[in-house]
Amino acid sequence: MIENMLHSSTIHESLTAVFQVRYFGSDKPGNGARPELAVLLWQRALDPQVGTWSLPGGKLRDDEDLTASARRQLAEKVDVRKLAHLEQLSVFSEPDRVPGPRRIASTFLGLVPLTTDPKLPDDTAWHPVSALPVMSFDHGVVVEHARTRLAAKLSYTNIAFALAPQEFAMSTLREIYCAALGYDVDTTNLQRVLNRRKVLTPTGTTSAPGRTGGRPAALYRFTDSSIRVTDEFAALRPPT
Fold it and tell me: Radius of gyration of the chain from Cα atoms?
């Protein structure tokens, strides 16, 4: 959409903030783990800014569009080949955003479901968005832009389908919303809102009983597996 605006001395690159809700502190949900929104980063082995952490990305090829470039870079740099959702965010074009030749970055938001666990290269890791390591160049700003976009879309679209498992209890969906939004959400209110918007479909099944027993939880799925606006004027706000 913007390739033609560049002149020959400018490098055009794609950068993608890939988010997933992950349980840090344990290998399993409910076992001392805390769900947090995480971003996928790789550590630079060469200058400039060796040792800092970067978003996956790289140069746009002459034979590809921006989305194809973003997907290729994810596959080549961090071995992520399947995303539940990918959308363009914004363009970062400050003349001095990186040292050396001018680079204009088209940035993307990518989402991976909770239950997906891609095999990562040794120099790549998930990091909590709330505790980012030392980031390369303006990549930390890109992450913040991506999180802001995600939080906004959680209010007025069904974008949480791209973060959730295929089937889930409402308690799990609440954890996903809380992690992505950065504040607590009431389970009952969340279910009421999503049911009103016809976002959820009951599966008719229940979860397996936990170690402590109790009533099995009803399971749901998202009605759609692609993004749609559910309430263009809605807003999920933190508790007061």
Answer: 19
- For residue 105, which of 48, 66, 147, 148 has the smallest C-alpha distance? 66
CB-count burial class (<10 Å; 0-12, 13-18, 19+) for 208: exposed
State the Cα torsion 32-128-156-30 to the nearest 10°: -10
Distance CA 165, CA 134 (A): 31
Whether the predicted pLDDT of 50 surpasses 70: yes
Of 197, 125, 187, 192, residue with least CA distance to 159: 197
CA distance 107 to 125: 19
Topology of 10-155 in CATH?
Answer: Nucleoside Triphosphate Pyrophosphohydrolase (3.90.79)
Distance CA 98, CA 15 (A): 13
Mean per-residue pLDDT over the chain, rounded: 90
Tokens of 38: 């995480």
Which residue from 81, 62, 188, 166 is spatially nearest to 70, judged by alpha carbons?
Answer: 81
Q: Is the peptide bond before 48 cis (omega within 30 degrees of 0)?
A: yes
pTM for this one?
A: 0.91
Tokens 């049911």 sit at which residue? 195
| Euclidean distance between CA atoms 41 and 39, whole angstroms | 6
Cα 106 to its chain centre, rounded Å, is 16
